[in-house]
Design goal:
Structural class: mainly alpha
Strand content: under 5%
Helix content: over 70%
Number of strands: 0
């Protein structure tokens, strides 16, 4: 009975710990994770909307991220799991990624509006 109670308490304590995933040897800071997840989001959007674009430029998503940030797949996965293990921190990181994507979208939209408004409405094309 004592062993069962001890097992239950141990499982409860471990499951309630702040971050059950061990800290990676090569911990990337939050800003770097935001940058990585931002790039991954852009690459996934490109792959989904224009699948041939990445192939045309000979870009492999994972390899591009690893090379750009000078990390390997193990470091990336360990850091992703580490930050995902802390829901508050992961939510904060993703919020920053979404804010950055929204800002980029707004900038792109403004650029399109400026370029279309530079054409005079009464001009004729010959």
């Amino acid at each position: 009975m004592k062993q069962l109670l001890f097992l239950f308490v141990t499982i409860f304590i471990v499951s309630c710990s702040k971050n059950p995933v061990p800290k990676p040897d090569n911990l990337l800071d939050e800003k770097t994770m935001v940058d990585i997840l931002y790039d991954v989001s852009l690459l996934q959007a490109i792959e989904g909307s224009m699948p041939n674009k990445l192939m045309e430029h000979n870009i492999e998503m994972d390899q591009y991220i690893f090379k750009k940030y000078k990390i390997d797949s193990v470091t990336y996965r360990q850091n992703q799991m580490y930050y995902a293990g802390d829901a508050r921190k992961f939510k904060k990181i993703y919020k920053k990624v979404l804010e950055r994507l929204d800002k980029e979208k707004q900038t792109e939209s403004n650029n399109k509006n400026q370029s279309s408004s530079s054409i005079a409405p009464d001009s004729t094309l010959e």
